């Protein structure tokens, strides 16, 4: 299982990469494995300011549909448009070409609530 050490994680199995006041967000390798083949990603909150833990979209797999939750508060400034025609990128490369959204953070300090790679590994091992 791939859990990059340079990323932060949520209990909802999302990863976060923060650069200055922009956070790139996707779902983890563990999450895409649990979901199975992903067939559709819907993010209808582009341009919206959302609070942490708000639903920002859904991911649809062959066997289920799951909500996607904001890991941090802020404005969704970008959606990975490649996912519209190639949602399988989330399965193939969840930490790079399978990223989902970019958030302009309203409070960069809120990232201290996220898990590091060891804490996330412990979470999914239980």
Account of the protein in words:
The chain has a 6-stranded antiparallel sheet with strand order 1-2-3-9-8-5. Strands 4-6-7 form a 3-stranded antiparallel sheet, with no helix packed on it. The protein is of the alpha+beta class and 126 residues long. The model has no long low-confidence stretch (mean pLDDT 95). It has a single domain, classed as RNA polymerase II/Efflux pump adaptor protein, barrel-sandwich hybrid domain (OB fold (Dihydrolipoamide Acetyltransferase, E2P)). Helices cover 19% and strands 35% of the residues.
Under CATH, the topology is which? OB fold (Dihydrolipoamide Acetyltransferase, E2P)
Just give the CATH class. Mainly Beta
Count of the domains? 1
CATH-level-2 architecture? Beta Barrel
Shape: globular
Distance between the termini: 15 Å
Largest pleated sheet = 6 strands, antiparallel
Q: Give the number of helices.
A: 4
- The stretches of 5 or more residues where confidence is low (pLDDT under 50) are none
Estimated share of beta-strand residues: 25-35%
Number of strands: 9
Helix content: 10-25%
- Alpha-beta content class: alpha+beta
> Roughly how many Å is the radius of gyration?
13 Å
Give the strand order, joined by hyphens, for the main sheet. 1-2-3-9-8-5
Mean pLDDT: 95
Order of helices and strands: EEEHEEEEEHHEH
Name the CATH superfamily classification.
RNA polymerase II/Efflux pump adaptor protein, barrel-sandwich hybrid domain
